[in-house]
Amino acid sequence: MQRLDKLLADADVASRSALKSVIRSGRVTVDGAVVKDPSRKVEEDAVLALDGKPIERKRRMVCMLYKPAGYVTSTKDKDPTVMELVPEGMRKMDLAPVGRLDKDTEGLLLMTNDGVLAHKLTSPKAKVSKVYYVEHEGIATQEDVAAFQKGIVLKDGEACMPAILRPMGPGKSEVVLGEGKYHQVKRMMASRSLSVTYLKRVKEGGLGLGNLEKGQMRELSAEEEALLFQA
Ligand code: URA
């Protein structure tokens, strides 16, 4: 249940303060009945109308974007942002990026208008794993693998949770993290003298990019969303 004035404000009908007088004047109906109390709690899926016209509600949306390099993970910046990659038809959905990828990092970036889900996904407690394909200078050794397993201490003294490093041949590795510190993969690799030259997030939880093309975005099904919380 939500307050009527909040539901209408979320649907961009007017500001919450302006809505109070609109509702009090009897112009708003809930499931066909006039409601004049702005604080009335109504079901989230109630049919709301203003002057007899149904009000389109913003539904919850969870999407994944294949972020190309060159875009900042932010809603506003002087440089191009990931918001420019949101398709026209989804622009009114108030989507925001979940966590961040660096400007030069590519790959899977979730976007949603569900703040509770975004918080759940970014909380270190949730331990949603993130898998990165990394190209780097040097060759990752078994000592590097063991150091990741133990938990890397970054050059500034910050301690990381145990992580997985899987060498995939000279200059190529996979890294699996359960947390998301600033520039974490780059800083962890640098602490082992394995400077990152290319970084791509390929998976979050059990969800991969599939056949999504670079720069494209699409909505997730409920099943795909559930995959996020599977290791
Ligand atoms: N780690 C990084 O260093 N950069 C990213 O964009 C993501 C993880």
Describe the structure.
It is a single chain. The protein is α+β, with helices and mostly antiparallel strands. The chain has 6 helices and 15 strands. The strands form 3 sheets. Strands 7, 8, 9, 10, 11, 12, 13, 14 and 15 form a 9-stranded mixed beta sheet that branches. A 4-stranded antiparallel beta sheet has the order 3-2-5-6. Strands 1-4 form a two-stranded antiparallel ribbon. Helix 1 (4-10) packs across helix 2. The radius of gyration is 22 Å and the shape is elongated. The model has no long low-confidence stretch (mean pLDDT 94). Uracil binds next to helix 5.
Largest sheet: 9 strands, mixed
Separate helix tally: 6
- Helical residues, percent: 10-25%
Low-confidence stretches: none
Q: Report the end-to-end length measured between terminal Cα atoms.
A: 33 Å
| Share in β-strands | 25-35%
Q: How much is the average pLDDT?
A: 94
The ordered H/E elements are EHHEEEEEEEEHEHEEHEEEH
The kinds of small molecule bound in this structure are: uracil
Structural class: alpha+beta
Q: What shape does the CA trace take?
A: elongated
How many β-strands, per DSSP? Answer: 15
Q: Radius of gyration from the CA trace?
A: 22 Å
Entry summary:
This protein has 231 residues and is of the alpha+beta class. The protein has helices spanning 4-10, 16-24, 115-122, 142-150, 184-190, 222-227, and strands at 2-3, 28-30, 33-34, 41-42, 48-50, 53-54, 62-67, 96-97, 106-112, 130-136, 164-167, 172-177, 196-204, 207-208, 217-219.
